[in-house]
């Protein structure tokens, strides 16, 4: 079945790398359409200045770059921090949090530039195809969606390189690609290639954001993180905007080797995948947030919120950021954070971190009640009846 004429103008999520450069030309050839390139800056720290010229040299009629760094931290990373979102007990969801934001603006740029379809470079085996396309469906269901890796006959990186050479596409790439990399302000992820062997240790030369713990400073560092209603607002007493705060926290924690993770995770599509992650700043913010909650959250509120964490993380991981159930969970989580204001102090040393203090004007911690050295209004004899009542059902078992 011919693809030509299916769409008049397509907005492509474009990075300027081999895959998306090939996709840009392939769309023009296969769909006989105009292509608008779109790039989201979420802190990947790639050179974006020459991207419009590169896209147009490959055939794009336009190239739109959106700076989304502030929005990414404020509206995606910080809500995840407030909810202590960790997937399968380990992954801080760096890639998963960026995808719905990228896809949101992808749909917006498509409409603003007169496109009737969007295209992405996610493969048919990964999670990103789901995250992108669920967002398109939620925010602009009338847009057509093209996923070349599920349609074309190219099956490998050498195939893409051969296609680029055939069509004169200006790319710089080699056949040797030891792993794939995704970077944003929250993390760097490494997967595929040599990392597909779960027994092989990551090469030390691979890491970018974190110093090797063995090479980290011999002197520990301490940082004080300030929060308002569960949201990070300051470091060591200095108020900072979201992107600037996370960037500085990355530098501090990364210098001390904090934030490396090596895990095998369960992808939404049903496969297991090995991922290696660097999330230095996010690791510290999560620990500091949890520490502050320990003195500001009511016990039952904390326990109920904690029951939501696996589901919250799963929804983020699977791409349901704009789903109704996510709106419900986020509202509940944010309500739990009303009193989570104050500071937590964290000590960083050679890859490890330790909370060393927490304080809040909303603290529920009562030193007199907790003390073993004074009564403080607590009658220890009351515990006799409490234990008796708790044990009533246990003594009746046969």
Would you kindly provide a written description of the structure presented here, covering whatever features stand out?
- This protein is an alpha/beta fold and 398 residues long.
- It has two domains: 9-70 and 94-177, HUPs (Rossmann fold, 3-Layer(aba) Sandwich), CATH 3.40.50.620; 181-297 and 339-359, Argininosuccinate synthetase, chain A, domain 2.
- Helix content is 39%, strand content 20%.
- It has a five-stranded parallel beta sheet, sandwiched between helices. A five-stranded antiparallel beta sheet has the order 10-9-8-13-14. A four-stranded antiparallel beta sheet has the order 6-7-12-11, with no helix packed on it.
- The termini are far apart.
- The model has no long low-confidence stretch (mean pLDDT 94).
Q: Count the beta strands.
A: 14
Q: Are there runs of 5+ residues with pLDDT below 50, and where? A: none
Largest sheet: 5 strands, parallel
Query: Spatial order of the strands in the main sheet?
Result: 3-2-1-4-5
Mean pLDDT: 94
Shape: elongated
Give the DSSP E fraction (strand runs of 2 or more residues): 15-25%
CATH homologous superfamily placement of the largest domain: HUPs
User: Radius of gyration, Cα only, in angstroms?
Assistant: 25 Å
**CATH hierarchy, class of the largest domain:** Alpha Beta
**Residues in helix, %:** 25-40%
Total individual domains: 2
* CATH fold topology of the largest domain: Rossmann fold
Number of helices: 12
CATH architecture of the largest domain: 3-Layer(aba) Sandwich
Please trace the helix and strand order, writing H or E for each element. Answer: EHEHEHHEHEHEEEEEHEEHHHEEHH
Q: What structural class results from the helix and strand content?
A: alpha/beta
Distance between the termini: 71 Å
């Amino acid at each position: 079945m011919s693809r030509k004429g299916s769409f008049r103008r397509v907005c492509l999520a474009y990075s300027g790398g081999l895959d998306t450069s090939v996709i840009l030309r392939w769309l023009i050839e296969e769909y006989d359409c105009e292509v608008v390139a779109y790039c989201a800056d979420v802190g990947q720290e790639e050179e974006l200045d020459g991207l419009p010229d590169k896209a147009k040299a490959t055939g794009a009629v336009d190239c739109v770059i959106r700076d989304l760094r502030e929005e990414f931290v404020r509206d995606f990373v910080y809500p995840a921090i407030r909810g202590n979102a960790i997937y399968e007990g380990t992954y801080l969801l760096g890639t998963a949090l960026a995808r719905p934001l990228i896809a949101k603006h992808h749909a917006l740029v498509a409409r603003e530039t007169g496109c009737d379809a969007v295209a992405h470079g996610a493969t048919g085996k990964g999670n990103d195809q789901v995250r992108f396309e669920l967002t398109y469906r939620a925010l602009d269901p009338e847009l057509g969606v093209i996923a070349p890796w599920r349609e074309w006959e190219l099956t490998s990186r050498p195939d893409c390189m051969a296609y680029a050479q055939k069509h004169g596409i200006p790319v710089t790439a080699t056949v040797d690609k030891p792993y794939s990399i995704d970077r944003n302000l929250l993390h760097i992820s490494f997967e595929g290639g040599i990392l597909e062997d779960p027994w092989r240790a990551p090469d030390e030369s691979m890491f970018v954001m974190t110093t090797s713990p063995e090479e980290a400073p011999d002197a520990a560092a301490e940082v004080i993180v300030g929060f308002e209603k569960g949201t990070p607002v300051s470091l060591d007493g200095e108020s900072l905007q979201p992107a600037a705060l996370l960037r500085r926290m990355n530098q501090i924690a990364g210098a001390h080797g904090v934030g490396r993770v090596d895990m095998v995770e369960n992808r939404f599509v049903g496969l297991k995948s090995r991922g290696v992650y660097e999330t230095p700043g996010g690791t510290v913010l999560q620990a500091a947030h949890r520490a502050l909650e320990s003195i500001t959250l009511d016990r039952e509120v904390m326990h109920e919120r904690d029951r939501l964490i696996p589901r919250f993380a799963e929804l983020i991981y699977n791409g349901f950021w704009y789903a109704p159930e996510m709106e419900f969970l986020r509202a509940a989580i944010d309500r739990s954070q009303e009193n989570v204001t104050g500071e937590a102090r964290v000590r960083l040393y050679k890859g490890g971190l330790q909370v060393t203090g927490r304080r809040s004007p909303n603290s529920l911690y009562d030193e007199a009640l907790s003390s073993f050295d004074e009564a403080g209004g607590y009658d220890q004899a009351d515990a006799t009846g409490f234990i008796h009542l708790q044990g009533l059902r246990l003594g009746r078992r046969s």
